[in-house]
Write a structure and sequence with these properties.
The chain has 8 helices and 5 strands; from the N terminus they run βαβααβααβααβα. The protein is of the alpha/beta class. The chain has a 5-stranded parallel sheet with strand order 2-3-1-4-5, with helices on both faces. Helix 1 packs across helix 8 and helix 3 packs parallel to helix 5. The relative contact order is 0.20. The model has no long low-confidence stretch (mean pLDDT about 90).
Length: about 210
């Protein structure tokens, strides 16, 4: 069966690590997976990512930031996600539309109704079958990003005030309350292997029910 799984969470939540572990597990079962990310899942997306995430201290107005994410998503869905699903692959995506609601909607304060409408256009009405929300206290996530500082530069979001990240976290949890059948909240403060085992059980159940 085809299955579109997204991984969501604040900075330092460990979603990228968990995505890689799940990919190894599923491939070990003989399933065909495609791992991708937003922004940056396409060549165009990599260019957009450099503007959004990696460019020094550049300031972006909230609407500009929003439309860049939406442009990345529109191209990503057309070039990567839809073709992969049509070929029966399992999609593992590091962030999708929920990130835009959490960061630009709840975090930046852009009108949520507008963000939802634009998300629908950019994603062509597509949404994940399953979303794994890695949740942990903001202070823990930010400490993790500082610990990995030798591996990559601090991005614009990691430099935001603590309250911004708290709003993002509250936003994610609000989304999970609204869609409990799709969004599963996992305690990302637990050991990595414990979180992975919980994810495996959720995904196995989802695949079996499909």
């Amino acid at each position: 069966m085809t299955l579109f799984i997204s991984f969501e969470g604040g900075d330092g939540s460990g979603k990228t690590t968990q995505l890689r572990l799940l990919e190894e597990y599923l491939c070990g079962q003989g399933r065909t997976c495609l791992s991708t990310r937003e922004p940056g899942g396409t060549a165009l997306g990599q260019m957009i990512r450099r503007v959004l995430v990696e460019v020094g201290g550049s300031e972006l107005a909230s609407p500009t930031e929003l439309f860049l994410y939406l442009a990345d998503r529109s191209h990503h869905v057309q070039e990567i996600i839809q073709p992969a699903l049509s070929h029966g692959k399992l999609i593992l995506c590091d962030r999708f539309a929920d990130s835009t609601l959490a960061y630009q909607g709840f975090g930046r304060g852009v009108d949520l109704k507008l963000v939802r409408q634009l998300n629908q256009i950019a994603s062509r009405g597509m949404q994940p079958d399953l979303t794994l929300l890695l949740d942990s206290p903001v202070e823990l996530g930010l400490a993790r990003t500082r610990d990995r500082g030798g591996e990559q530069r601090e991005d614009r979001f990691e430099r935001e005030e603590l309250e911004f990240h708290e709003r993002v976290r509250r936003g994610y949890l609000k989304l999970a309350e609204e869609e409990p059948g799709r969004i599963y909240v996992l305690d990302a403060s637990l050991p990595i292997q414990d979180v992975h085992e919980r994810i495996r059980r959720i995904v196995d159940q989802k695949l079996a029910s499909g």
